[in-house]
């Protein structure tokens, strides 16, 4: 088909105007306000249901088209020999880089490598650093000499200038995760600058210092907060390096970013694009011509679940897809069982192959900034830039990243968003498949190489800084499921709730299904039959019309039979007082506080939640 024929074919269709679309939408809404279709992010950024195409948009300068990102494999096994085995196997099967997780680092989620000379040497034995293999060090705040040790190992077999080592110095995050600021920031900044210069003088090209947004993301923060924190850290490094004798151009090249990638596809794409735009604005303010900064991505810890962990494969796939389209230069995928224990070989292979399939079979790296021009992504990118820049200015006004951490400015803003996020999880507005929705009480426990070690009791200490503590969004629901599992192991039965259905299957079916899923997210098994069979919990399920006729009598009968807590599915407004008088004590519905209701049920049953 010729170009002329193509144009003629397209001309057969009338132009699609926004006004015509609005007419169709209004017909579906049937008088409901159009604004109900506008959603908002945790930064308060409005997301329109239809965004206009940006025909004048230009691609964000980042990873060049047709240049693949670095496929990094996590090396977190605490046994150096096993860590080495994993590293060589991953490199031999498609990975072209390693993310070395040092104990106590932001990436340490229960398993990591100890920072001794012997452990580092054994873990990296046989890795050919002159073969283009990237090494990203996830550095612990307690072992800042690790980069020099690894530099010495690399120099034994490779030219430092040819090695792709990202050293991961990050004193800001050390403050954020430990809550300690052992010396004035000016002294820490000078020490960091000396360490960077030592490595640069040894011939390594870096980058050396990282602005790591994962600490904010892991603690429940928003996209704009993650960007602002990362940007403030990077500017802090620029100042420290320049103040200690490094030219601004060289200081800029010494810095890179790490960001979390999660299952919110469009926000993740926009976040990675916004990071480059924000950094370009800093470069312009410094009188530098813009150069693409290296941005590494890691799939998000906070979205990982222990329950139904195979869903984590889907979450990670979306996250990799989004980070790749957003222009990430390197990506690390958390194995799907990372929240369950030490990942086994299969989980690591899936993590690696998630990237390989998307990169080599879906060709995601072949186009530079494929989201450019998309109205939705461009709007989100611009909005994130504005929100992050405003917060960045607040951090700068407070004296920079270190001062903002010391004063609690950053932690306070993150805590406010985390509280909103946790409330949305509790009400299941932010659904977690396999955990807060669609639970499976009979799922098979995931296979791992080792269970998490027992948590050590930590003596309370006074901290100069409030630490940013990592969370997993699924943890509150999973605690209920764990209590249920414990009861099953001890007594041979889970806590139960009787579903008291009224009317025909067609009448009670939808709400009975809702109730079953609702209670089983907390490990409370739903049972049905002719009578309550001595269960302490019961839930009425049917339509509003059936409730009006039969609910009061059935409620009274259930209470007489010994039911301690009686629930009803639905919101009945002015009829609720009469039902309460008949014995209904709680109403469950879409958007209610499911977590509080489930915890209350455990209290009634006298079951302790660990």
Low-confidence stretches are: none
**Oligomeric category:** single chain
Q: Report strand %.
A: 5-15%
Q: Count all strands and give the number.
A: 15
Task: Report on the biggest sheet.
Answer: 8 strands, parallel
Polypeptide structure, described:
- Strand 1 (39-40) and strand 2 form a beta hairpin.
- The protein has helices spanning 3-11, 18-29, 80-92, 117-123, 146-155, 171-178, 185-201, 214-218, 223-243, 248-253, 265-285, 311-325, 345-361, 375-397, 401-407, 409-426, 475-491, 505-520, 544-560, 576-582, 594-605, and strands at 39-40, 46-47, 70-75, 97-101, 134-138, 164-166, 209-212, 255-261, 295-299, 330-332, 496-501, 525-527, 537-541, 565-569, 586-588.
- With 610 residues, it is an alpha/beta fold.
- The strands form 3 sheets. Strands 6-5-4-3-10-9-8-7 form an 8-stranded parallel β-sheet. A 5-stranded parallel β-sheet has the order 12-11-13-14-15, sandwiched between helices. A two-stranded antiparallel sheet has the order 1-2.
Layout of SSEs?
Blueprint (H helix, E strand, L loop, with lengths): L2 H9 L6 H12 L9 E2 L5 E2 L22 E6 L4 H13 L4 E5 L15 H7 L10 E5 L7 H10 L8 E3 L4 H8 L6 H17 L7 E4 L1 H5 L4 H21 L4 H6 L1 E7 L3 H21 L9 E5 L11 H15 L4 E3 L12 H17 L13 H23 L3 H7 L1 H18 L48 H17 L4 E6 L3 H16 L4 E3 L9 E5 L2 H17 L4 E5 L6 H7 L3 E3 L5 H12 L5
Parallel strand pairs: 3-4, 3-10, 4-5, 5-6, 7-8, 8-9, 9-10, 11-12, 11-13, 13-14, 14-15
Antiparallel strand pairs: 1-2
Helix pairs in contact: 3-4, 7-9, 9-11, 9-14, 11-12, 11-14, 12-13, 19-20
In short:
The chain has 610 residues and is of the alpha/beta class. The chain contains 21 helices and 15 strands.
């Amino acid at each position: 088909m010729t170009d002329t024929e193509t144009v003629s074919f397209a001309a057969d269709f009338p132009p699609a105007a926004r006004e015509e679309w609005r007419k169709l939408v209004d017909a579906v809404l049937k008088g409901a306000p159009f604004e109900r279709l506008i959603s908002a992010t945790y930064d308060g950024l409005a997301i329109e249901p239809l965004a206009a195409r940006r025909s004048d948009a230009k691609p964000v300068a980042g990873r060049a088209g047709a240049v693949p990102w670095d496929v990094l494999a996590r090396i977190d096994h605490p046994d150096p020999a096993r860590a080495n085995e994993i590293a060589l196997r991953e490199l031999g099967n498609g990975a072209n880089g390693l993310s070395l997780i040092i104990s106590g680092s932001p990436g340490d989620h229960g398993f990591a490598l100890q920072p001794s000379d012997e452990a580092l040497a054994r873990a990296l034995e046989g890795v050919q650093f002159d073969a283009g293999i990237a090494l990203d060090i996830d550095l612990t705040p307690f072992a800042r000499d690790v980069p020099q040790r690894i530099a010495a190992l690399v120099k034994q077999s490779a030219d430092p200038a040819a090695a792709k080592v990202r050293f991961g110095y990050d004193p800001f995050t050390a403050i954020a995760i430990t809550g300690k600021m052992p010396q004035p920031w000016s002294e820490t900044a000078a020490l960091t600058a000396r360490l960077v210069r030592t490595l640069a003088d040894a011939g390594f090209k870096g980058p050396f210092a990282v602005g790591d947004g994962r600490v904010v993301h892991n603690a429940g923060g928003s996209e704009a907060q993650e960007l602002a924190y990362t940007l403030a850290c990077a500017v802090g490094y620029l100042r420290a390096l320049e103040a200690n004798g490094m030219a601004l151009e060289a200081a800029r090249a010494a810095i890179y970013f790490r960001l979390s990638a999660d299952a919110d596809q469009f926000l993740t794409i926009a976040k990675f694009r916004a990071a480059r735009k924000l950094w370009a604005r800093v470069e312009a303010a410094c009188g530098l011509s813009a150069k693409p900064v290296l941005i590494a991505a890691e799939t998000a810890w906070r979205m990982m679940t222990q329950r139904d962990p195979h869903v984590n494969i889907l979450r990670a796939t979306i996250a990799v897809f989004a980070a790749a389209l957003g222009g990430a230069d390197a990506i690390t995928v958390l194995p799907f069982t990372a929240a369950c224990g030490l990942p086994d070989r299969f989980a690591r292979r899936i993590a690696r192959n998630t990237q390989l399939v998307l990169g080599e079979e879906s060709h995601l790296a072949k186009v530079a900034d494929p989201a450019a021009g998309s109205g939705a992504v461009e709007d989100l990118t611009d909005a994130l830039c504005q929100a992050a820049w405003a917060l960045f200015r607040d951090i700068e006004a407070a004296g920079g990243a270190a001062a903002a951490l010391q004063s609690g400015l950053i932690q306070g803003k993150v805590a406010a968003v985390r509280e909103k996020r946790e409330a949305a999880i509790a009400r299941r507005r932010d659904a977690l498949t396999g955990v807060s929705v669609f639970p499976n009480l009979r799922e098979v426990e995931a296979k791992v190489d080792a269970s998490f070690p027992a948590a050590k009791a930590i003596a309370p200490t006074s901290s100069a800084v409030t630490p940013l503590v990592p969370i997993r969004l699924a943890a509150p629901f999973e605690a209920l499921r764990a209590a249920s599992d414990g009861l099953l192991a001890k007594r041979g039965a889970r806590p139960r709730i009787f579903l008291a259905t009224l009317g025909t299957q067609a009448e009670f079916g939808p709400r009975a299904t809702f109730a079953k899923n609702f209670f089983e997210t907390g490990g409370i098994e739903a049972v049905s039959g002719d009578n309550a069979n001595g269960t302490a919990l019961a839930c009425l399920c049917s339509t509003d019309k059936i409730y009006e006729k039969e609910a009061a009598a059935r409620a009274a009968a259930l209470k007489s039979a010994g039911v301690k807590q009686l629930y009803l599915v639905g919101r009945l407004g002015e009829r609720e007082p009469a039902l309460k008088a008949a014995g209904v004590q709680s109403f469950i519905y879409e958007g209610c506080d499911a977590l509080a209701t489930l915890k209350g049920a455990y209290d009634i049953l006298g079951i302790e939640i660990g």
